[in-house]
Amino acid sequence: MVIATDTEMPTTRQVVRLGIIGAGRIGQVHCLALSRNPKAEVVIVADFFVKAAEACAQKFGIPSAVQDWKDVIRNPAVDGVIICSPSDTHHEIILGAAKAGKHIFCEKPIDYNLKRIDEALATVAQSGVKFQLGFQRRFDANFQRVRQAVQGGEIGEPFMLNIKSFDPAPPPLAYLKQSGGLFFDMMTHDFDMARFVVGSEITEVTATATSFDKEITAIGDITTAIVSLKFENGAVGVIQCCRKAVYGYDQRLEVLGSEGAVDINNNYPNTATVYGADKIKRDLPLNFFMDRYKQAYEDEMISFVDAVANDTPTAVTGMDGKIPVVLAFAATKSLQENRTVKVNEILYGKSVM
Amino acid sequence: MVIATDTEMPTTRQVVRLGIIGAGRIGQVHCLALSRNPKAEVVIVADFFVKAAEACAQKFGIPSAVQDWKDVIRNPAVDGVIICSPSDTHHEIILGAAKAGKHIFCEKPIDYNLKRIDEALATVAQSGVKFQLGFQRRFDANFQRVRQAVQGGEIGEPFMLNIKSFDPAPPPLAYLKQSGGLFFDMMTHDFDMARFVVGSEITEVTATATSFDKEITAIGDITTAIVSLKFENGAVGVIQCCRKAVYGYDQRLEVLGSEGAVDINNNYPNTATVYGADKIKRDLPLNFFMDRYKQAYEDEMISFVDAVANDTPTAVTGMDGKIPVVLAFAATKSLQENRTVKVNEILYGKSVM
Amino acid sequence: MVIATDTEMPTTRQVVRLGIIGAGRIGQVHCLALSRNPKAEVVIVADFFVKAAEACAQKFGIPSAVQDWKDVIRNPAVDGVIICSPSDTHHEIILGAAKAGKHIFCEKPIDYNLKRIDEALATVAQSGVKFQLGFQRRFDANFQRVRQAVQGGEIGEPFMLNIKSFDPAPPPLAYLKQSGGLFFDMMTHDFDMARFVVGSEITEVTATATSFDKEITAIGDITTAIVSLKFENGAVGVIQCCRKAVYGYDQRLEVLGSEGAVDINNNYPNTATVYGADKIKRDLPLNFFMDRYKQAYEDEMISFVDAVANDTPTAVTGMDGKIPVVLAFAATKSLQENRTVKVNEILYGKSVM
Amino acid sequence: MVIATDTEMPTTRQVVRLGIIGAGRIGQVHCLALSRNPKAEVVIVADFFVKAAEACAQKFGIPSAVQDWKDVIRNPAVDGVIICSPSDTHHEIILGAAKAGKHIFCEKPIDYNLKRIDEALATVAQSGVKFQLGFQRRFDANFQRVRQAVQGGEIGEPFMLNIKSFDPAPPPLAYLKQSGGLFFDMMTHDFDMARFVVGSEITEVTATATSFDKEITAIGDITTAIVSLKFENGAVGVIQCCRKAVYGYDQRLEVLGSEGAVDINNNYPNTATVYGADKIKRDLPLNFFMDRYKQAYEDEMISFVDAVANDTPTAVTGMDGKIPVVLAFAATKSLQENRTVKVNEILYGKSVM
């Protein structure tokens, strides 16, 4: 792939020209990150609600705002697209962008249908465009430090992983109804993190879950889940997810290994401790993913732009996007059947997809 | 039950007179605790290796040392016995002591056979003696503070529990061969802690496990296990056990609830942090259960002596001793059959016992 | 003051147009912050080394680069200047900018001569321009949280302050020779912080100091100092400064009050802890002021731009710039004369200035 | 010195026989510690309030209780005395005990009159008895770890010390009136700790202080003090004392050195953290010296008994008792004269003693 350059200037003048598809909250996060990145330029933004696209264009000084995402992929000035539109449009846009030769950064998920995921990944592969999935946690300093400790041998061979991933409060029911459920909507991030830090594929999952909220129960979803994992390298792990932690967004992780262990704590808005007559207190952690992963969102975009500009592999591949969905299917099946499910049952089975 | 008193002195002079059965390491821990307890007096110590009984007697100023535990329960000056002999003798001694009208403090386990446990508990019940099991962790300030937070409503309704319980290093193979395996030898303490802090019975368990040690694998045991739990009150939980954490004895626990969460950290020999040119360092946690639970061992003995002296219920009952064994059977079955096992399958089933 | 606006657009289109004087490290930090601030526009940059000005202009897309700072204050398109030139030029540029009606953001110090400081402040006052001094720590989330705790009554009446302020390593001797010495170069930041968090003026100082470096001793400077403070409100305090902390930049602060206390810790690149067979380790804190106060530098510039745009008072005044210099003189005198020095001796005395 | 032994048994049967002088709170702390020490036996207890002596004797099984401390030093069965009587009796009892050939453990202070201290120390030296002063903090695991770090070279050459020493609340005025004032009553412990961890003598002190309590001000005392120190080895330090910290007993210390730093935190009753919807909370530290230094009190008594039993030097000498009093005089003089005071002015001067 050759990326477009403004002129025949030397490579230091290379700027990756991007189109944003979806001008909502996450689209704007990426616009901000790209506005700070001297190697990138956002040349067009699309949103089905064209007013949103126009507002975004004005806010970030983007020259063009359109309604139809196809106008983005048709635009010859566009090197790549940032897909931030609703999940059920990802598959179609990926196919279109890939066929148009545009590099692709896509928010998770690719899709929740494994056949459509495979189709999207195959199309990307044939077209030769870069593809990066939006697992921004991989760019977080804490998770990266854990990966470095594990991969660098600081804790020896990993034995056991524990991930805790709690949201401050459940999203609205309307959102939950179309979210795919906790395993797909929430735990796919944690499945990715498990693979990322342990550096080995998950072969078996076993799920236990409960719901503390009657409305969420009524729509067939759960609020609180524990999924045990077995990895190809012999390690085991467990992911704990919960839709509600009143003290804020709780994102922690520990790995125990043959020569030691590593854990990470949450990030806080300040380091102050207040000592009172009854208790010692500190402020709550950064409250949600937009604050907690602010730098990670910026860094994942830098990474994508660099991969395009330098023609190097992206940091989060299409397969990295597919496997967590497979694992979410396996966890669902495990919960339904009260048994350990081998991931291969999903990959090659037929019942669920 | 009326306890023996030295004379017809007022109750403040009441001293509980005890016999120690088993003069090994844990027997001596209890002798030390009792030597510091003005309400208790150890009047006799028994050990099959009579030299050990004699050495213990001399060290702690105990007037009588014998070989046969039956000499302890026959002794009319003895109000109660502290059973610290090998696990496979517990059943017989409990039966003997109960029939002799002696109060019983028994190190875990009662037995690993559920029929024999039931027989022991029935005999205790018929005799009316006090019975306390040696789950010393219940007396630890950290675990008690968690229980207080959960039971006192500080975190609302509990949603999810996580227990981490890692030993510094595996015990010798010879020990492991007769230990009953990780679920029985190690995780019964954690099953008890799960019930203690959540305050609800466990109804289902699901186990995932691995082994990092070929010799341990060869004897059919595991080194690293994850057991997911469902509680009667709707909460879920997960226990992580490992035979090896090179940085020391790691005993932590967290509970997430509807109004908050509580966690505990390990105990350390000092609070010093050393800041160097490459890292910030602190010393390792207290290394093993004798150090970590030193105060808890003393306090469980105070609790037992008080229960006897004041004719009040003991803090850890016979049923508290039985249920973790049932759970260990359920975890074993879950691991064998790769499925969630309802605890009722063990309690009323026939296959395992 | 009326600030220039691009056109007769509504106030939301107001953009503060700024000139940078001094294109070195800190000048570029401000350029970056301003490039991210939609309310500001850098229209010119000056540096005696004109190549540096040109490089800066290219890097941040600034339309004009010049050698002479006078070209900045003469420029009618400029609303305000950001003074980042060497300390000994600050006085002259402040006078020039104020007389030209340009708002002023000035890096510390205004000057180290009290008469010249007074002259600069008087000229600023007469001209009516905004003036903000570059005490960026006031914008740091940790220090702000302490101030909030103290001023908001969370700890009652403050009794005692402790500030620790250690650099990773001494600067080069060449720098130290013209730095004014530790009290002026380093501790003025801490004097400001003491006033900021306690919210009361310092009336007496007493200094104790030592030097661990022969070369620094040889030029008449110190490496390690303790300065005790008395505040007008009756509180006492102590500042500890050191030129060398091998583990990195150490910036901590504690206030003890009648109803509690508050302290802050350093900021770290990640929250990971690694547990090894010998020690428990974490990475070193953010190493120096550019990393530690990255966000504070951005926020102080937002604050200045807002003060200009909205015609509101600046967050750090000229007097806030003068008083720490007075305190540095008092500390110097205290050290020379081995006695407590009342700050009034400096403000109204004649010997030192 | 030869210590008495019960019989001509081998040395392992040697028991140090002690008399307690003063049966108040601290006397009972020592009785408890000695009751747990198999190498020691308390054979007599004296208290001017003979009922207190009798109650103590009954509680700890001490065979003899008397009113007059002279009956203790006359008793041929007594190898040494533990002086826990009011401070103004220490001098006389030390002289009497030393002349009677009894080893001496003495609570602080020896006296607050330097001539009487010198007389006491000279008498002890002539008699050849062991003498240990009750600076129990030297036996605390945290302070010992700091000393080990400094003396063992973990932080290189020490540059700067900071001690924070805050009581939960001021003692009653009646106590304060006869206490000698904050420098003598409270800070002598910290002066000792400064010497203990830095391992060098203090040569200069400079004091700053205030009072937040009118009644304490009215009796000429202070509540809050900062004393800067210079050490013989070139290091500097600062001690902060306050009579009131509503969150409890606060005892912390930091040393910065050429190769690193070391600090210690307080001790807490448990390690639990509770995460709520508004704050993250933990319980207050151990509240006062009896809880905080429980183990240190036991260990200092073990150390004294061992020194007597093995005829080895004591861990805290008479000179260790004198120097903090000299430093308290120097701090008082510094506060009165608003200047740095060289310690030699007190040691060899005439005005203060």
Automatic annotation (TrEMBL), chains A, B, C, D:
InterPro entries hit by this protein: Gfo/Idh/MocA-like_OxRdtase_N, GFO_IDH_MocA-like_dom, Myo_inos_IolG, NAD(P)-bd_dom_sf
Annotated keywords: Oxidoreductase
Gene3D superfamilies registered for this protein in UniProt: Dihydrodipicolinate Reductase, domain 2 (3.30.360.10), NAD(P)-binding Rossmann-like Domain (3.40.50.720)
Residue ranges annotated for the Gfo/Idh/MocA-like oxidoreductase N-terminal domain, each copy included: 17-135
Keyword Oxidoreductase: yes
Pfam family, one: GFO_IDH_MocA_C3
One GO MF term: nucleotide binding
Name used for this protein in its record: Inositol 2-dehydrogenase
Organism: Rhodosorus marinus
Taxonomy of the source species: Eukaryota, Rhodophyta, Stylonematophyceae, Stylonematales, Stylonemataceae
